[in-house]
Automatic annotation (TrEMBL):
InterPro entries: Rhodanese-like_dom (IPR001763), Rhodanese-like_dom_sf (IPR036873), ScdA-like_N_sf (IPR038062). It comes from the Bacteria. This is Rhodanese domain-containing protein. Residues 88-175 form the Rhodanese domain. Gene3D superfamilies: Rhodanese-like domain, SP0561-like.
Length: 182
């Protein structure tokens, strides 16, 4: 489903699929979707969620989600552009936000693994430093990117499609993999 096809009657699963940052946007403005008491089911519609959570206007909620997605889209950078930037005189810091196991198994050469210590160093460091975050498929790193930008690191970008897109579009020697969740 595309963003233009979303309506207040769309199931939350479709909204979350079309708008990767929707859960973050709902939680930040409406305190919805972040815990058991304010969660929602995949088949619940946005209108249903709005009605049972205090009578929010579902059309306004959808507009907020679309606006938040437009902001997220500005944060994204394609894998080919990342490769080009890495070859420049002032390359960005490439930060892997996946799990330690994923990073140890397969990574983009020159990237560093995100740790609490690294995060604190970056937050205390140069706010003009260019940073590119990546994850497996480019969805969860958007949350990290928003967190970094919210802490003053305005030149933080997120690689669109994550390491999976890097492998498909830039370097096929980087093995692709699939996560299986029990």
């Amino acid at each position: 489903m595309t963003t233009s096809e979303l309506t207040p009657d769309s199931p939350m699963a479709d909204i979350l699929d079309a708008l990767p940052g929707a859960r973050r946007a709902l939680f930040s403005r409406y305190h919805l979707g972040g815990c058991q008491s304010c969660g929602f089911a995949p088949q619940e519609t946005l209108a249903g969620l709005a009605a049972r959570s205090g009578g929010h206007d579902p059309a306004e909620m959808l507009e907020h989600l679309l606006s938040a997605d437009a902001h997220d889209q500005q944060m994204l950078i394609g894998p080919a552009e990342v490769k080009q930037r890495l070859g420049s005189d002032t390359p960005p810091l490439l930060v892997d936000t996946r799990t330690r196991e994923e990073h140890d198994a397969v990574r983009i050469e020159g990237s560093v693994f995100m740790t609490q210590e690294l995060q604190q160093q970056l937050f205390a460091g140069d706010p003009q430093r260019e940073i590119v975050l990546y994850d497996h498929q480019g969805r969860h790193a958007l949350d990290h990117g928003s967190w970094f930008q919210g802490h003053g690191l305005k030149r933080t970008r997120v690689m669109k499609g994550g390491i999976d897109a890097w492998s498909r579009e830039v370097d096929p020697a980087v093995r692709r993999y699939r996560l299986e969740v029990d």
